[in-house]
Write a structure and sequence with these properties.
Layout (H helix, E strand, L loop, with lengths): L1 H16 L11 H8 L10 E5 L5 H9 L4 E6 L2 H13 L6 E5 L12 E6 L8 H8 L3 E14 L6 H10 L4 E2 H10 L3 E7 L6 H18 L4 H20 L3 E9 L2
Parallel strand pairs: 1-2, 1-4, 2-3, 4-5, 5-6
Antiparallel strand pairs: 5-8, 7-8
């Protein structure tokens, strides 16, 4: 129980840091719209699932890009899911957009429900291979998964980067190997592109570090609060030193 309370406390601090930020991971509207253009469907309206939607930055981009789509946006944080519903009502989109509090690892939708599963910066939470395997049954034949995933950009990344990602996410791999994993999972690979560096620093880490600076000043002397943001600070500094070695890439694939 004490460990669970500690984890809840740490998570609450992290949510506090992210208040006022539209995105919870590297990205931009421009990049997301570029990835959305990879979805080719003649069927209207389409059914879309936004997995790990966070605050809905991409949820409402999807609604704009596909004006007849029905979108279900899931997140394990009930506040984020509720926020999607409130925003949908505010924008007059309640009939098309719904937020649902649900774990991406425990989805209970009917099989073959969706034309597109969208996962920007979120498949990482359960693992690329696991996500492709477990989500496949929810996609219609001819439907897509479009997701972003951490990849090696350097042919020979430094030992520091290899050690860092071995601890953080041991499924990091090259784009070529990710494509092989897509095909091994039974999908037809369509396309991919590397997310630009400014999505990491200008759009994410720079504003995040400003938030952390203010958070630390407001919580001086609170050890738990300091520990909650320490890893994020280290990640930002590490990325700045090794940005050319790894990054995000978007992948699109079709279920036969």
């Amino acid at each position: 129980m004490k460990k669970r309370f500690w984890r809840d406390e740490m998570e609450n601090y992290l949510y506090k840091v992210f208040e006022g930020m539209d995105r919870l991971s590297p990205g931009s509207d421009e990049t997301s719209m570029k990835a959305m253009a990879l979805f080719k469907s003649e069927e209207e309206p389409v059914e879309i699932l936004d997995v790990g939607c966070g605050k809905g930055a991409d949820t409402f981009l999807l609604a704009r890009r596909f004006p007849r789509a029905r979108i279900r946006a899931i997140d394990i944080n009930p506040e984020y899911a509720d926020n999607i519903c409130h925003r949908a009502e505010k924008y007059g989109l309640s009939e098309r957009v719904a937020g649902v509090c649900m774990s991406m690892a425990e989805m209970n939708f009917e099989e073959e429900s969706f034309d597109l599963i969208w996962a920007q910066g979120s498949i990482y939470a359960m693992g690329f291979k696991e996500g492709l395997s477990q989500w496949k049954k929810y996609i219609k034949s001819g439907g897509y998964i479009i997701c972003s995933e951490v990849v090696w950009l350097a042919d020979e990344p430094s030992r520091e980067s290899v050690d860092f990602w071995k601890r953080e996410y041991d499924q990091i791999d090259t784009i070529v190997n990710k494509i092989k994993q897509i095909e091994e999972a039974g999908y037809i690979y369509q396309n991919s592109f590397v997310v630009k560096r400014s999505d990491w620093d200008e759009n994410f880490y720079n504003p995040l570090m400003d938030k952390i600076k203010s958070f630390k000043a407001e919580n001086a002397g609170n050890q738990a609060a300091m520990e909650a943001v320490e890893m994020m600070e280290k990640e930002a500094v590490f990325y700045d030193a090794h940005a050319g070695e790894y990054g995000y890439a978007f992948f699109s694939m079709v279920k036969p």
